[in-house]
Write a structure and sequence with these properties.
This protein is mainly alpha-helical. It folds into two domains: about 230 residues, no CATH class; about 180 residues, no CATH class. Helix 2 runs antiparallel to helix 3 and helix 11 packs parallel to helix 14. The longest helix has about 40 residues. The N and C termini lie far apart (about 45 Å).
């Protein structure tokens, strides 16, 4: 299907397609919830197998991976979703593909440097684990980009199925890898993630190959880079801030605390898929639909607080029963992290909505402020208060910026 054919679709047929896509979007949120639940169960399984120290090493590798990918690709994938909602995706796809490959290479170099610094100056990692982590990074990058392209093309039904299939494959490959005795548990885990990501990428390529078949493979990356102006801020900064709490623990606290924090945060941040998914849907829709969706979120916001409190209690019970009391962090850390998650979700959805209605300037400025103040404040509070201080700096920054966004909204309404 080429661009000219898309332009010639009759208006009535186009309306039917829009209605179908809107119904497909409804299943994307619960599908992400199911995938997140399966991922959480899997995290408990491999955490028990790895032990506290090895779980800390894996958490460090995963954190470096996500940070490097977000740093270079988040603004580009956000722009792609925005172009998809405007019907301009196919004509810009070749330039996007060229740019994302360059960004992926830069991310791989950054990831390798980060792992080497960690291994040489903090905790030495085995050479085999470092090599496998490079494979894991490449596979994770391909998986991320593939799913973003599906969302940008409004293939939410396919994306929903593949999100769940991805976790099922990860669990299956990890269980089957027990027969690969020469490899350590950490190596087998990363290989399982990598193989699952590769299969999902191949399936995704098969899905949208017909759509982009008439489009050139590569284009001028500068063309797409210009279109990403202003879109790198919230996705990049928010993604970095999301993982920087673990980096702070990695560098300033024992690696055992990183393992415990990773397990605890996996439970409490279970509902992070809600603002993440809503943000993708908001960007992929037209402005009037985005406003209507945002107006229906009040009930979700009111429910999040009691749900987070419930998750704190359930997480401590589950961790104690399944992993042991030695995996538990103090109550105060869990409560502070829950507050951080609540404020983070509010800031993300509000900021993405501003971008979708054409008010990207305020989001860009506040995102930069988040990056400038949140990390230093958290580092200072960690040095003073230890593990308690990790979420504190993020809480203060999120709260301040969210208040500014709310006041800006009230001002613009008046």
């Amino acid at each position: 299907m080429n661009i000219q054919i898309l332009r010639n679709i009759p208006r009535m047929a186009y309306c039917r397609i829009v209605r179908f896509l809107n119904s497909a979007k409804r299943i994307y949120l619960p599908a992400r919830g199911i995938a997140t639940a399966l991922s959480l169960a899997f995290a408990l399984l491999y955490s028990r197998e790895l032990g506290v120290i090895n779980r800390g090493y894996v958490a460090a590798i995963m954190s470096f991976t996500v940070l490097a990918l977000i740093l270079f690709t988040s603004g580009t994938t956000l722009t792609l979703r925005n172009l998809g909602s405007k019907g301009k995706l196919l004509e810009n796809f070749p330039a996007f593909l060229s740019l994302i490959l360059i960004e992926g290479l830069l991310g791989l170099i950054t990831f390798f440097i980060g792992i080497q610094v960690f291994s040489n100056f903090k905790d030495q990692l085995p050479i085999a684990l470092i090599m496998v982590s490079l494979i894991y990074f490449v596979a994770s990058g391909m998986h991320l980009v593939s799913m973003e392209v599906l969302v940008a093309l409004n293939f939410f039904k396919h994306a929903s199925k593949l999100e769940i299939l991805s976790i099922i494959l990860q669990i299956s490959f990890f269980l089957l890898s027990e027969f690969l005795t020469p490899f350590t548990i950490a190596t087998r885990l990363l290989l399982s993630f990598s193989l699952a990501s590769l299969i999902i990428t191949l399936l995704t390529l098969k899905i949208f190959h017909k759509v982009v078949a008439g489009v050139a493979v590569f284009g001028n990356p500068r063309v797409f880079l210009k279109k990403t102006k202003g879109n790198h801020s919230i996705g990049t900064v928010l993604g970095i801030v999301d993982k920087f709490d673990r980096l702070i623990i990695t560098w300033f606290l024992p690696v055992t605390l990183l393992a415990k924090y990773s397990v605890m945060s996996s439970f409490i941040s279970f509902f992070r898929f809600v603002p993440d998914t809503l943000s993708k849907i908001i960007v992929s829709q037209k402005i009037e639909h985005a406003k209507k969706l945002l107006g229906k979120l009040n009930l979700v916001i009111y429910l999040l607080l009691p749900i987070l409190l419930l998750m704190i209690f359930l997480s401590r019970i589950a961790i104690s029963k399944l992993l042991g009391d030695e995996w538990l962090l103090p109550w105060g850390v869990s409560i502070l992290f829950a507050a951080q998650e609540l404020l983070r979700g509010g800031f993300q959805v509000s900021g993405i909505f501003k971008i979708s209605v054409g008010e990207s300037v305020i989001t860009h400025r506040l995102s930069l402020a988040l990056g400038i103040f949140a990390v230093p404040l958290s580092i200072i509070s960690t040095l003073v208060l230890g593990i308690y201080g990790v979420p504190l700096g993020f809480i203060v920054t999120y709260l301040t910026l969210l208040i500014i966004l709310i006041l800006r909204k009230e001002t613009s309404i008046v």
